[in-house]
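User: what does the whole thing look like in 3D?
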Amino acid sequence: MREIEAGIAAMRGRWLMGAGAFDAAPADWRAAAEGDGEPELVLLALAAQAGRTAFLPAPDGTLSPIESLPDLDLPVLGERDRAAFRSLMALVKPSSEDTNRVLAMIAARGWVVHPLDHMPEDTDEAIPPVYAPWVAWAARTAGKAEVATEVLDEESFDLIPHAARRRAFAALRTEDPAAARGLLEARGASLPAEQRLALVTTLSKGLSEEDVPFLERLASDRSGKVRLMAAGLLARLDRAADDGALAQELAVFHSVKRGVLGIGKTTVGPSTLKTDAQRRRREELYGVVSLSAFAAALSVERQTLIEGWRFADSRATAGMVELILRTGRDADVTGFARGAIAEAPTHLARLIARLPFEARDRLIPLMAPVMHLAALVEVVSHRPGTLGRADCARLAIVTSLADRIRVGERKGERWYGLNSALFDLALIADAAAAENLIETFVTAGLARMDPGLAALRFNAGLARSPACSQTDIVGDLR
Amino acid sequence: MPLSHDTITALAPDQASLKAAHGQMKPRKWLLRGTRAADDLVWGEVQGSGANPYRTVFNSADHGYKCTCPSRKFPCKHVLALMWMHVDDPGAFAEAEIPDWVNDWRSRRRKTGTAPAASGDGAAPTTAGKSLTAASMPEVEKAPDPKAAARARAAAEKRAAATEAALIAAAKDLEAWIADQLRTGLSGLLDELDQRCRAIAARMVDGKAQALGGRIDEMPARIAALPGEFRADALIAELGKLVILCRAFRATPADPELRRAVATAETREALLESGDAPRASGRWEVVGERVTTRRDGLVAQETWLQSLDAGAENPFALLLDFFPVALGKRGSAFTPGEQFEATLVFYPAAHPLRAQPVERRAVEGAPLPWVLPPVEGPEGEMLDSYLAAQDAAPWSIEAPVMLPAGRLCQLGGRYWWRAETGGQALPLRAPPPRAATGLALECSVALWDGERLGLLAARSSWGRVSFDA
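Assistant: Here's the predicted 3D structure for the full assembly of 947 residues, as structure tokens:
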């Protein structure tokens, strides 16, 4: 065999150069080719066949099997749902962000997709946490540094990429607030300002008096944004270190209308200002004054300021929203959000997003009907695919879409944003609501198999996994 | 508007279409006919000239329709035939679940009015000049003319002799060309592989050796897909096999297998009438599909089937179709992983592989498992079916093999399949899907060409896996 191998190598060299290979051929081959009119062709045929049947390619190193793909905590979709998922992906061709939203909805039902239907990239940090073992596997098999996402401590702190570290830090803060604070205190100083700011922001979860000393030390942080965030967190604990003069200056730009003899509600609102310079100054002050100092400067109760706010000036309301988000307690945010339902629904998404999940869930049924669909999708991202039939039916967007479909049917046109809106609806509705929405839109004029309804059909057909309860899989997906 | 004979007549583009539709109304031509009355849907699969049946569907309420055949007439004869059969005998259509491909069509089509579609000039289609009755009339057969028949037979024999002579000349021409390449140096050929192959392929087509021409035309693409250091060996293998093919053909030009490899394949009708064509009935699984756009403007659609019957004489089958690129993307009637009962008729060959389905029946219930390769025995046996195919047809490029339990490995930038026992390793032709690299492959079906492995499908710890061969 070695003689043949050597012979083929020698013949190949000669043929490449255009020289005859007869002399280099193995003896048996020469004998076979000798009588032929074109002996080189015979040798070529023999070399070809020997190369394809007598030898096997050998690796030029040691082969090691690629590490096995780890199992996830949730069961994989069944064959029927796998096919429906593939069909949805092929039909909708969602962006990676939208794909992750679909995966979050699937995870909320207690399933994960099959790795061959969707495999996350090693850089996919926005994928639902249940897929973290696959992301880590992808990173390891791509030859990237081992990512110890399981345990975040002082040793692993620098090894974990920022987004994963932020997620792990949020989880640690939820489980053990003191440990999270201690870790940030020990290792935070080495981080760039933006990353430090992100972790300090996370301290808003489980904020307590025990955080005060650390937050006060952050008053000397080298980043202005971090200092401002720390001051805001302190303000939420009524430890605002405001300059009273600034609060007084802000109060001058507002007026308080008090009820007379206990009749009528006390309201607070922005005064009409004469110059742009005054308006800009007022907006600057919203960014530095705390809620409690502002209320004190106005000589009103904090609750009065929140509940009695007049929403007439949209720029002032936007500034007030900033102020409350930065320095208000959860109760302040909730109170202001209730007022904004009728007066300033565009701010609802940001307000709700600052609240813990339980507080969000109480507000969502009230606010959903007036919220913009994209904003609603955002605020229910912690529990996708769970909005019930009644809640969905009350959404203004549903009526609006049905009207657009009817008009479109008459004119033979289709609203360009229809598919996107239907997709968004599919990500927030539960299965029964999705079924109901399909009926609504089919009644309005869409074909039952319309591509725009693909995500709703997938949702409606996706049962909840018996292997998993809702609390197991809910998590902050951002 | 309910579908009626008048509607069909009005929809038909011309009388010839109705006549052709009548010819398609034989039930044996239809592999499948189904309906879903609640959704006004009727569909069917009709066997055309290729291995892949055409899929035909229409809506009985608004008369929208679709067929995957390449006809330029709308509706085509298959749609008209399906409509006609449904009007004549709706009971012959089984009420069934709507298949995915029908649902896919429904989801993509725009709604239309209930009236038959207007013709291009805006006028409503009419029945003028068209008649179902006339289309149903049998052709009046002329009285046989023995002299004319003899003349035709003589002409056919003359044509066949001329074709055979042309093919032998083409084979000689190709051998001479290869000898020239050896004399001038294969490194020069590698540098100009595209142009030189294009030129000799055109000569082969001119010499009636279309299959040979197509194979040479695709050779540069096969070689260019390899890393540089492997191209010389691949070129030698390709040229050597062409020499084998030419010599074998010149020795036995009447051999149907060689004729197929050099010129063209038999027609479906000729194949079905052939007494030499082996037939195999049983359960089959679609293990993979490979669609290749060729330089001659054709798309080659390969559907690989595996027998699920233990001890099957032909464990694998290849359904091969060609259609023009200009027709756009064409869906296959087969889905990877799908199992069905079928009778296949194989093109006669020493090691039969290419086949045509004669009949196909859907199966219900749990899918059958694969017939696993024996666990015992040396690992070398896993390539036995490839070696047997090479013994029978040494000019062939690749053959399907079934591999035992294995894992995928990566070395440098290349991927390898390695037997679970750690011995034999085979390099992959293309990187596998990333997720598949982390799976334990219990057994795999692949195409082996002696140098590279193209995985088609595998059974794994995560279920069935499909690859792009």
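In plain terms: Chain A touches chain B through 49 residues (CB under 8 Å). Confidence is low (pLDDT under 50) at residues 470-478 of chain A.
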